[in-house]
């Protein structure tokens, strides 16, 4: 959990964090709230936080974050593969909290059309419905959500956008191939958006986590206990806070002149150009 002792460097700012009911998204929202930002907590389902035992409801998560960090918070529900839902999510956020200064688009995942992991999940045999679902959930949602939020930021000539890539984007892989392709697309869309928004003083960056100890990660695979240590080696699974600290950098004053970048957060697991 973030500490109350952190300087309130984002006081007066409004942040929208998508996919924030649990896991990394919740950690990002807590980090921004600890820094003083008012936060909109987006989720696709009201009961999503309970899926891997990380909470109860999206409403409860939003209320708890607001109470814990002494900021205003708002729960917003919507399917971010649909333009009309995105428009409503942004409108509800701004009606409750004010214009969006920070977008952290975390929603996504290697999730099949019917839920769960695609099966098969390779480059050749994955079902068409699952190809579309993974591309829409990750790449299309990123493009459409960034478009919606960027328009207001351009009018105000200020803002920060952080997208969520993955180390999967930078290496050919048989398993999870379409997810990797979608995250490679997210990475490059981020660069294109950053180029367009430079004249508007809006910094746009992508973070690319490796394995991170979220409820979903730990609940959907066998994990080597040796990689669950937190000190003594970088060859381990990241804590959610180690990833959230990078969002603090990109969203805060230190990141003001950094844009168009993708930063891998994997303890040096990929030591080659991205």
From TrEMBL:
Protein family per UniProt: Belongs to the short-chain dehydrogenases/reductases (SDR) family.
Coiled coil spans: none
UniProt source species: Bradyrhizobium cosmicum
Pfam family, one: adh_short
UniProt-recorded Gene Ontology molecular function terms: oxidoreductase activity, acting on the CH-OH group of donors, NAD or NADP as acceptor
Superkingdom of this protein's organism: Bacteria
Name of the protein this chain belongs to: 3-oxoacyl-[acyl-carrier-protein] reductase
InterPro entries named among the record's database cross-references: NAD(P)-bd_dom_sf, Sc_DH/Rdtase_CS, SDR_fam
């Amino acid at each position: 959990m973030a500490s109350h002792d952190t300087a309130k460097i984002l006081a007066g700012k409004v942040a929208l964090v998508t996919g924030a009911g649990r896991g990394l998204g919740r950690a990002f929202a807590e980090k921004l709230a600890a820094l003083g930002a008012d936060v909109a907590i987006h989720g696709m389902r009201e009961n999503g936080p309970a899926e891997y035992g990380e909470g109860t409801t999206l409403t409860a998560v939003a209320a708890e974050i607001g109470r814990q960090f002494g900021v205003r918070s708002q729960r917003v529900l919507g399917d971010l593969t649909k333009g009309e839902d995105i428009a409503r999510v942004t409108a509800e956020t701004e009606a409750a909290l004010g214009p969006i200064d920070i977008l952290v688009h975390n929603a996504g995942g290697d999730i099949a059309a019917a839920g769960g992991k695609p099966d098969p999940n390779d480059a050749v045999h994955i079902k068409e419905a699952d190809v579309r679902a993974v591309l829409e959930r990750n790449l299309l949602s990123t493009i459409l959500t960034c478009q919606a939020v960027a328009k207001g930021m351009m009018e105000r000539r200020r803002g920060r956008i952080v997208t969520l890539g993955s180390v999967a984007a930078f290496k050919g892989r048989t398993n999870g191939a379409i997810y990797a392709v979608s995250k490679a697309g997210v990475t490059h869309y981020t660069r294109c958006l950053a180029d367009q928004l430079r004249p508007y003083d809006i910094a746009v960056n992508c973070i690319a986590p490796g394995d991170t100890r979220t409820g979903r990660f730990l609940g959907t695979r066998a994990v080597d206990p040796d990689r669950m240590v937190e000190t003594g080696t970088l060859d381990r699974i990241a804590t959610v806070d180690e990833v959230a600290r990078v969002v603090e950098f990109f969203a805060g004053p230190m990141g003001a002149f950094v844009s168009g970048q993708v930063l891998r957060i994997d303890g040096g697991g990929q030591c080659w150009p991205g």
